[in-house]
Amino acid sequence: MSLNQLIENCRINDTKAQGELYKLFSSKLFSVCLKYSRNYAEAEDNLQDAFLIIFNKIEQYKSKGSFEGWLKRITINTVLQRYRNEKIFDIINENVTDEVELDIDEDNVPLEYLLKIIQELPDRYRLVFNLYVLDGYSHKEIAEMLNINIGTSKSNLARARQILKDIIENYKTRQRLQSL
Q1: What is the rounded CA–CA span in Å between residue 109 and residue 6?
Q2: Among candidate residues 115, 133, 140, 126, the one with its CA nearest the CA of residue 80
Q3: Looking at residue 77, which CATH number applies to its domain?
Q4: Are 155 and 97 in contact (CB under 8 A)?
Q5: Which of 7, 57, 58, 121 is the most buried (most CB within 10 A)?
Q6: Which CATH number belongs to the domain containing residue 170 in this structure?
Q7: Any domain includes 57
Q8: Sign of the C-alpha dihedral, residues 82, 111, 163, 99?
Q9: Separation between Cα atoms, residue 170 and residue 180, nearest integer Å
Q10: How many domains does the chain have?
Q11: In angstroms, what CA-CA distances link 4 with 7, 53, 63, 66, 107?
Q12: How many CB atoms lie under 10 A from the CB of residue 28?
């Protein structure tokens, strides 16, 4: 069955088609959820919530642009909505304006470790870092998505980069000391 036919069948609440669509996109969308969630279990919950919204709103997809992109936007917005409800950005409004250079040497820092330390960032920093660095959103778009101002987005990104830089430098130092 073609993707277009699958979408059409989902529009009429065909549960078999919904299951196929889930099988087809769940692993990609789960990785999106994992990137924005605090942990694996929360990512699983967010994925389920995202698919409920996808199935409820699939009639709104107008076959313009990438269907996968549409799914990804819904998934990101589903996860972000949870954080908007928790008001994680009301706590701190830092004004860090210095651009922190984050030099990641993939030969010395394993990808699994990088993903782990990004996952462990405080929510407000992790969300902005992922949206800006990994998904390419602008500070203006991030501010709108998270209901914060542009300065808060920029300062949260700078703070996330500083935290990651410190952790990576400590990791590299430990690696050097262990190899002596």
Answers
A1: 42
A2: 126
A3: 1.10.1740.10
A4: yes
A5: 58
A6: 1.10.10.10
A7: yes
A8: negative
A9: 16
A10: 2
A11: 5, 19, 8, 12, 42
A12: 12
- Is the residue at 100 inside a domain? no
Helix (H) or strand (E) holding 46: helix 40-57
Q: Are 77 and 83 in contact (CB under 8 A)?
A: no
Give the pLDDT of residue 91: 42
Q: Do 74 and 144 fall into the same domain?
A: no
Chain-centroid distance of CA 16 in Å reads: 28
**Residues spanned by the domain of 20:** 3-86
User: Model-level pTM?
Assistant: 0.76
Locate 168 and state its tokens. Answer: 């990576």
Asked if residues 73 and 66 have their Cβ atoms less than 8 Å apart, the reply is no
Vertex 82, ends 152 and 133: CA angle to 5°? 45
Measured in whole angstroms, the distance separating CA 127 from the mean position of its chain's CA atoms is: 6
Tokens 């059409």 belong to which residue?
8
Identify the pLDDT of residue 122. 93
Q: Would you say residue 94 lies in a domain?
A: no
CB 159 within 8 A of CB 166: no
Domain contains 13: yes
